[in-house]
Amino acid sequence: MTGPVLWWAVEEPSPLAPEPAEIVIGLIAFTLLFLFLKAKVYPIFEKTFAERTAAIEGGIAKAEKAQAEAAEALEKYNAQLAEARNEAGRIRTEAQTQRAEIVEEAKAEARTEAKRILDAAQSQIESERQQALTELRREVGGLAVDLASRVVGESLEDEARQRRTVERFLDDLEGREDAQAAAPAGAAG
Amino acid sequence: MSSSVLAVEGEGFVSPGPGTFVYPPAFGEGTFVTKPMLIVILGSLAVAVFFFLAARRAAMVPGKTQFVGESLYGFVRNSIALDAIGKPGLKYVPYLATVFFFLATLNISGILPLVQFPATSRIAIPLFLAVISCILFNAIGIKREGLGGYFKNMMFPSGIPWPVYILLAPIEFVSTIIIRPLTLTLRLTFNMFAGHLVLVLFILGGEYLIFEYSGVVGIAAGTVALLGSLVLTAFEGFVQLLQAYVFTLLSALYIGGALQDEH
Amino acid sequence: MPSDAPDDSSKAESERAAGREGEADAYGALGLVISGVLVWGGVGFLVAERLDNRLFVMLGLLLGMGAGLYLVWFRYGRQRDQ
User: Fold this and answer.
1) Cβ contact (<8 Å) for C5 and A56?
2) Cβ distance of B171 and C63 shorter than 8 Å
3) Using an 8 Å Cβ cutoff, are C20 and B89 in contact?
């Protein structure tokens, strides 16, 4: 019931006296506990700690990667945007050139058309003038006959006056023909 | 507690003494195992089972048991081993953690309902652990500096005229080899011893005042004593954890000292 | 979070080093004085027994305490000044 008693303990068992059986039992229990925990528990805890630390570090790395990816995407987007702008500018200049070409073409076409119409008008005028001239020549004969008959018909009182009349008439004819010939030529010029 | 209970039934109140800490064999006369031994065995088993459950399904996001287990282990690892030794201390975490869990459990058995006896108040338990710690840190020092170098550094620090060594060397030797484990042992044992004794005194005294002394005064004083024992129990719990921590921390400090360059 | 991730930063490390030295010093100093008193008080006791003169016990105790205190200064006080 009592352990080895030290010399100063008198009646009661001394609390300073270690019980050998308790040392043995305690030593065995502690050793077994130590071996068990060291083999089955502590390594798992350490592993979990390490994994958790790694997970935190891994999370940081992942975030950094995502950031880099986002920056890359932004750059790509910007590049695409710039490219699109270039393309639009190119198309615009192209369109402008095309427009100028079209306008030029249209102008040239209009010019040729105008020239064509003008030419046609001129040739028509010329032919009409010729026609009028021939018609007039034909009429002069008729008029002459008409005049002669009128002269014959009227009293032959004044031979001189008759002669003057005929001459004046002929002069008039000459002048009219000249004027008629000169007028269309001036218009065509 | 049987002897004290008998004492109470005798004439007057006899305050409990060291006899309170002596138990007959738990399973009748002739058997070997006593109550403190049972507490040691069952306590160790409880620690083993608890940590087995805590580590069984290790997950990144811990469950309740795993969280408690990891926190306790992390406490010894970071707040004792790393604090007292530094990085080389990680190697000794398994020993220190086991010491802490073992002692904390056997201390707490002092306020555990129905058990109510700190197994560490039996000097044998702190003694063998203190001896293991002592052997451990001396072995570390000897391994690091060699047998001669270790004791030379310990007992003959340079910078002292040689005749003084006669005076100082024995002190250093005794201080390191004997006083350290001795203070470890006694500090823990008597903290537990005294705490348990005071608790028993309050509880048995209160009981005696109420049932034996009786009367208004007896019942009032007894009630106060029993209420006081509740407060004391809470305080004891704190002391028990603290002493387990101190024992482990000092072991770690001694190991750290043996690992350092200057002794 | 359970106190898990090993905190190995150099700052924490140096703070810890300072803290643990303080603690180690306090316990170590006490141990040295106790040892001094025990060793030389013990020697004084033996001498006193042999010579049958109680004075040596007192001398031993004083010598031990003085030596212990000197060791405390030598071990811990001196290093502080450096």
Assistant:
1) yes
2) no
3) no
